[in-house]
Amino acid sequence: MVTGDTNLWDHPFRKESLQNLTRAMWVVLALLLALSSGALSLNKLNMCMDAKHHKVEPGPEGKLYLQCSPWRDNACCTANTTAEAHNDNSYLYNFNWNHCGVMSPQCKKHFIQDTCFYECSPHLGPWIQKVDQSWRKERILDVPLCMEDCHNWWEDCKNDYTCKTNWHKGWDWSSGVNKCPESSKCRKWTEVYPTPKSMCELIWSNSYLYTTHSNSSGRCMQLWFTGPNPNTKVAEYYLNNAQQHQSFALTTLLFLAVGSFSLWIY
What we know:
transmembrane helix; signal; membrane; Folate_rcpt; two-stranded antiparallel sheet; disordered N terminus; transmembrane; globular; two-stranded parallel sheet; 42% helix; 266 residues
């Protein structure tokens, strides 16, 4: 019979049950970390954005057009999308590259390659963010570009002209294609983008992040490549880093929570 002076928490059976509960919580923690890590890898290392022209899932596309052909073994784009990526004012976005006079061929080839990368790459998962826009539900943010890609792009466009810093917004679309807004004027490329860094980061609302990594470093994404896609390993590197930070943060929080619970019952 239990008297009024008995401390229920000190009862041996009660204490043993709580100790077993603590051990069970640690097991659940380990399982949660393992499952979340595995799910993250499966989802983000080979996926397509939820956007206007992207396929639902990546896969082979044997007839990708010209500059998009490097992605033919595993692509988020279709052959029709890649053909349109090479056209002026294509149906993809009705975007006019020639808004400040005719864009030079050497500059335009980088925008075609940029379009191929955006539409076709299945390895952008670590940088995909949810958005609420009429033409897409997801976008990329701060994709680390190799230094050579940014510098070559800027160098080949430096004698061209544009009227806007951020090409994602602020255009006059009244004619159905983008035109410079009335308040703007066409300026030389180097006035709008003084450095390769400013161009790569500002032109598409920080979709890209300028880095000082070279294309042989395995730490930056390449717009241009031949042979096996080198961006697979780069995405894996950044995803693993993100998982390690996430796992550390989650482990720390749960360790503190379980530790506090353990001290309380003991």
